[in-house]
Write a structure and sequence with these properties.
about 45% helix, alpha/beta, elongated, disordered N terminus, 10 helices
């Protein structure tokens, strides 16, 4: 006579059934976790400078967004910076290393150096995504650009200079380096606005090579030809912010980009303030979108910029 164990949960059949059910649930759970986990996306970010008011804020935005999204989308970000600021040769070496490592995404500031460009093309041929932040590359098919609309930023600078100057001025321009598309676009927008003011003359365009000492030499020498100084990128304004605690009498006023501490102390009359934190965050957000959807939200993403002056300082977020 056989005993029927099927009705009692404590019998051998009941125990086996429960064991199999638990195993099936655990296996199903593990399988679901594996299916939901995205493959790792390795991202190499090459920043040109480790400053205290522009690229450091882009880095901050990247790191904040990676903390929020990195684990969910399995994004692993490595940030590299050359030993010398804006040194294209060193950045090219870093770029070659990352291409050889076959990362999935490379984030760079664009420039027009031919060797740098060729390494990027090699990366694209290997299927690596190229994201340009802050500066695009002329006639280069990067997968995504994130940054300011630099032509419109140049126009914003020109319109505010004309307003502050009352339509009459001799303005000397100091910019960073030739061959950077963002600076050329800013200069074009600035010139297009100033062309509408016959009383404003652009006396010269000068290059500081992103060097504070070079800029200060130009600051003093250009006052012989101009009564207003225009800084088309952050080096000039940041240098003046450290050099002076208040307005200097060498020029009627100075305008520039991003040096918000100089505006707060009134060393600068105003700056075009780019949302650099937003640039950094959008890099990670767009990579997450690509991981989950297979595409970016667009090929060009313009981040915000505002006119920041001492009189309206508290109205514009840093």
């Amino acid at each position: 006579m056989f005993r029927d164990y099927r009705r009692g949960s404590g019998g051998p059949v009941g125990l086996l059934t429960l064991t199999f059910l638990l195993a099936a649930i655990l296996l199903s759970g593990c399988g679901g976790m594996e299916e939901a986990l995205y493959p790792v996306t390795r991202v190499s970010v090459i920043l040109p400078h480790n400053d205290d008011g522009y690229w450091s804020l882009i880095r901050e935005g990247i790191e904040e967004a990676e903390t929020e999204l990195g684990e969910s989308y399995n994004i692993d970000i490595q940030i590299s910076i050359p030993q010398l600021n804006y040194n294209i040769s060193q950045m090219t070496d870093i770029l070659k290393q990352q291409v050889a490592a076959r990362v999935d995404v490379i984030v760079i500031q664009g420039n027009e150096d031919e060797t740098f460009r060729q390494v990027l093309l090699e990366a694209q041929n290997q299927g690596i995504q190229i994201i340009c932040v802050d500066t695009a590359i002329r006639d280069f098919p990067c997968n995504l650009y994130i940054g300011t609309d630099n032509y419109e930023a140049g126009r914003m600078l020109g319109e505010n200079l004309a307003r502050l100057a009352g339509g009459t001025a001799r303005a000397a321009v100091v910019t960073g380096e030739p061959g950077y598309l963002n600076l050329e676009q800013r200069l074009e927008g600035f010139r297009d606005v100033i062309a509408g003011y016959p009383g404003i003359e652009i006396t010269s365009v000068n290059y500081s090579h992103y060097d504070g000492l070079t800029f200060m030499n130009q600051y003093h020498s250009l006052s012989d030809e101009a009564d207003i100084l225009v800084c088309l990128e952050g080096t000039g304004g940041q240098t003046l912010s450290h050099a002076f605690t208040g307005p200097d009498t060498e020029y009627r006023f100075v305008v520039g980009f991003d040096a918000y501490t100089g505006v707060e102390s009134r060393v600068l009359a105003g700056v075009v303030k780019q949302d650099t934190n937003q640039m950094g965050r959008r890099i990670v957000e767009e990579i997450a979108n690509y991981v989950s959807e297979g595409s970016y939200t667009g090929g060009v993403i313009y981040t915000d910029c505002h006119w920041l002056s001492a009189d309206h300082y508290d109205e514009v977020s840093r």
